[in-house]
Design brief:
Length: 565
């Protein structure tokens, strides 16, 4: 198989170098809006330069006011120190900076802790330190409005780890955001709740010191090798210290891919390669808004959390495919190359190789920077190790990273890129035809594929234009909507129009899969009639809540995010 030849070429990659860069990046507290995020990007830029990879640093700004498509920049914020004492427990920022919630204001104080277990508990919050385990940003605002003197957050499932929870405050939010916000381990929170229910009154003493500046650089690092069109590789560089798997792992792997492809690229390749390090979502939307070369990108491979292990982290290696609206053989090539890279030394009873890691190709899901490129019509996929029991916590440290997983993902990604760039047209055509049959066959075992077949043919036609093959065909579009304000739809963009619409939107999208279905419906709706778009969505995902989606579409129409055609 042609892919196996390119898999052997991928042995030039160094997982040892990736691990070293993960350790280096993990030393920075890479909160969006912070100086250490900029320092982490500077580190990557310097390493690329040492390897002879030319890059460009694009400087946007965090100022709490600027909009990047649908997202408003958080404030420029740096942690100076933070500490909290509850009984015999003490935690400070020298142990983990996550003790201060990202973007918390400064402040200090002490008081009785009030766990918010029921909505009516807010009536007793004045003068208390509230303890909250969900919907933290909304709860933080309510704590300020209720006269609480402090805010403590925890997250279920984190055990003894301190969770990462961000407030992402804007300049306007600072008018009401006055009390310090801290985070504690779930074990502490459970003990506090037990004492509270036993009519004891635990108290907290706390202090948070931060620097809130007028602005900080929002750093976007972009590198290109060869000539267009490009396969674009992306990774988000942000997240708190240590943030080893999320996402020092993706950022470090992207560095190694740039180093190796800078040596491997030849003018005979049908693709050049581009590399993008961004703050998650905000950086990607800022890049696409002003700097992206959308028409020059064949596809995007987004590297997010690529170092989790099956044993320590409890992870499965997932490949999130492109949405049906953006069907591309890119999904199939990466799926096949990851599967080959995942074959280990163990054999079945008859001698067939067995996989090293659990591996699953998944229908499109939202949750990282691949989303934004899909919204703008560029097919984007994402390999990710999920779940990760250390996710967004102080325990996401370099020693949890699996070298074996890094090797599987890096080799799968590089061999896929080389196959697309170098394979003969007849090999690509055969693969594209086979993957289309596989994809449609998977759907057809469960449901009809009338609309899916048209969209797959349209995707293959786009693939063919970039790859120089002849498959698929374009179909005449019958759009029923136009996505006017494009980007990840957030409650904050709706709140600018009508706070009531934002509240309803948050309520209806509490289930994250609903948000995925909504965004895919918008992408389908720009190609198909309303009836056919809903039909395609059912074919892609199976069961969807159409009534809820219709309510959401009505909200977006009222907010003028979309308009009917």
């Amino acid at each position: 198989m042609a892919l196996q030849l390119f898999l052997r070429e991928s042995e030039v990659l160094s997982s040892e170098r990736i691990l070293q860069d993960i350790v280096a990046i993990s030393q920075f507290h890479r909160i969006q809006g912070s100086k250490e995020l900029v320092e982490a990007v500077n580190y990557i830029e310097e390493e690329l330069s040492a390897w002879g990879v030319s890059s460009r640093l694009i400087r946007k700004k965090y100022d709490g006011r600027s909009w990047y498509l649908t997202l408003k920049s958080p404030i420029a914020w740096d942690l100076v120190r933070a500490e909290i004492e509850i009984g015999e427990h003490r935690l400070d920022s020298s142990r983990t900076p996550l003790v201060a919630m990202a973007h918390s204001p400064s402040g200090e104080g002490e008081g009785e802790i009030l766990p918010i277990l029921r909505e009516e508990d807010w009536e007793k919050a004045e003068g208390k330190v509230v303890l909250v385990g969900e919907k933290w940003r909304k709860a933080y605002k309510k704590a300020n409005e209720s006269g609480a003197v402090g805010f403590i957050a925890y997250r279920k499932g984190t055990g003894n780890a301190v969770p990462y929870i961000g407030l992402f405050l804007s300049k306007d939010d600072l008018r009401w955001a006055k009390i310090p916000a801290l985070a504690v381990p779930e074990t502490w929170a459970n003990e506090i709740i037990r004492k509270h229910l036993s009519r004891k009154s635990p108290r907290a003493k706390f202090a948070v010191e931060v620097e809130i500046k007028d602005r900080e650089t929002l750093p976007i690092l972009y590198a290109k090798i060869g000539e267009p069109p490009y396969i674009l590789f992306t990774a988000h560089i942000c997240h708190p210290k240590p943030g080893a798997n999320d996402n020092a792992s993706g950022s470090a792997m992207l560095m190694e891919l740039a180093r190796v492809l800078n040596r491997l690229w030849e003018s005979s390749f049908r693709f050049g390669f581009a590399f993008l390090w961004v703050p998650e979502y905000y950086g990607t939307q800022a890049f696409i808004e002003k700097h992206a070369e959308i028409e020059q990108y064949y596809g995007v491979i987004n590297l997010d959390m690529v170092g989790g292990s099956a044993d320590r982290s409890g992870s499965t290696l997932m490949l999130v495919r492109t949405p049906l609206s953006n069907f591309s053989m890119l999904s199939g090539v990466l799926e096949a190359s990851l599967s080959l890279a995942n074959m280990g030394a163990r054999k079945s009873f008859s001698g067939s190789p067995l996989p090293v890691l659990p591996l699953k190709a998944s229908s499109y899901e939202m949750g990282s920077d691949h989303d934004v490129f899909n919204f703008f019509g560029v097919p984007a996929v994402m390999p990710i190790t999920w779940p990760d029991r250390f996710y967004h916590s102080s325990e996401d440290s370099p020693e949890k990273i699996s070298r074996e997983t890094l090797e599987i993902v890096e080799r799968g990604v590089l061999s896929a890129a080389l196959f697309l760039a170098k394979a003969k047209g007849k090999e690509l055509q055969r693969f594209a035809r086979g993957y289309a049959m596989k994809y449609l066959g998977e759907l057809a075992m469960e449901r009809t594929t009338e609309e899916a077949e048209k969209l797959v043919m349209g995707g293959l036609a786009r693939d063919s234009e970039f790859l120089g093959i002849e498959l698929g065909h374009r179909f005449e579009k019958e759009p029923w909507l136009e996505w006017k304000v494009r980007g990840g739809i957030s409650s904050e963009i709706l709140r600018e129009k009508d706070p009531a619409l934002a509240e309803k939107f948050e309520e209806l999208t509490a289930d994250r899969m609903t948000a995925t279905h909504l965004h895919e419906l918008l992408m389908l709706g720009e190609k198909l009639s309303q009836e056919r778009a809903y039909g395609a969505l059912r074919e892609e995902f199976g069961s969807v809540d159409e009534e809820k989606l219709k309510e959401l579409v009505d909200i977006l129409l009222k907010a003028e995010v979309i308009e009917g055609v």
